[in-house]
Amino acid sequence: MFKSGFVSIVGRANVGKSTLMNNVVGEKIAIMSDKPQTTRNTIQAVYTDEQSQIVFIDTPGMQKPKNKLGEYMQKVATEATKDVEAIIYVVDDSKFIGTGDRKIIEQLKNSKSPIILVINKIDKLKDKEELFELIKMYDNEVGFSDIVPISALKSKNIDTLVKVIKNYLKEGPKYFPDYMITDQPERVLISELIREKVLMYLNDEIPHGVAVEIERIKSREDKDIIDVSAVIYCERDSHKGIIIGKNGRKLKGIGKSAREEIEFLLGSKVNLQLWVKVKENWRNSQNYISSFGYRDEN
Fold first, then answer.
1. Do 73 and 28 have their domain in common?
2. What's the pLDDT tens digit per position in 113-138?
């Protein structure tokens, strides 16, 4: 009997949701960063073996919206928890339950789906006693169907988590072919890889106001090279200068780092051209938000 189903991954920003999802499917599907708002859209990653198929839905970190983009992200994260076989609620090694987690817990109390508590970053804990304290702290809040401690970064207990998830799957079809590990088109994956490098190279608030638009992806007829043209949009002229950097060094670093990963993704040499343009306050413009691919499909 083949079993399948959809599983949402929720949690506040920076607890390791994308790292966990990438680890399960064995490839980089979602970009990773220690900055909030790294994941902006729902991203589906597909795990398939001989007996089952799990479609993971990675969601933006739940937090208080500060603009229209934030409102969109909050709605996307909430909608993704409906009509799924299970919800994975990811927390980290924090010793107290903060405001962000409190809000998520209140939302989860109304869920009809089984909730699996995943305590990530256990490699940072000193001993089992600390882990037991975390389990006790969260178990007093919600009646979790299962609790699984893991380290997504160190690949610890991931197999156990997959086995637990399978218990909640139902007899069903294969939603995606065996070779498919994500629903994201190459164009989206490439734009997200570039945005990840912007997050990596820049500090403070600037990365939050950055969007990446792919203008062209074209293979050359005479050489095994793919030309990729992309625009990095920011919200202020001063931000543009910071992204480019002195003598263009910052932008060159972003481009070099992104190109290497894009070549791995496409399996070909890549000529990456990056430009930086300003669209003031785009995160509060519904038209701009939609044009950058953050669309409400419901």
1. yes
2. 999 999 999 999 989 999 999 999 99
What is the domain extent for residue 103?
3-171
| 3-class secondary structure per residue, 225-262 | EEEEEEEEEECCHHHHHHHHCHHHHHHHHHHHHHHHHH
Distance CA 258, CA 256 (A): 6
CA distance 255 to 271: 10
* Cβ atoms of residues 160 and 196 within 8 Å: no
Least confidently predicted of 9-13, 58-62, 109-113, 293-297: 293-297
The yes-or-no verdict on residue 37 having pLDDT over 50 is: no
Token pair, residue 61, equals: 């970190």
Q: What is the DSSP letter of 284?
A: G
In this prediction the pTM is: 0.68
46: exposed, middle or buried (Cβ count in 10 Å: 0-12, 13-18, 19+): buried
**CA 190, CA 196: separation in Å to the nearest integer?**
10
Classify strands 86-91 and 115-119 as parallel, antiparallel or unpaired. parallel
Pairing of strands 52-58, 43-48: antiparallel
pLDDT > 50? residue 141? yes
Residue % of the chain over a pLDDT of 70: 80
117/245 same-domain check: no
| Mean pLDDT score across all residues of the chain | 83
Q: Specify if 22 maps to a domain.
A: yes
Do 153 and 29 share a structural domain? yes
Contact between 260 and 272 under an 8 Å Cβ cutoff? The reply is no
Cβ atoms of residues 76 and 42 within 8 Å: yes
Do 165 and 190 fall into the same domain?
A: no
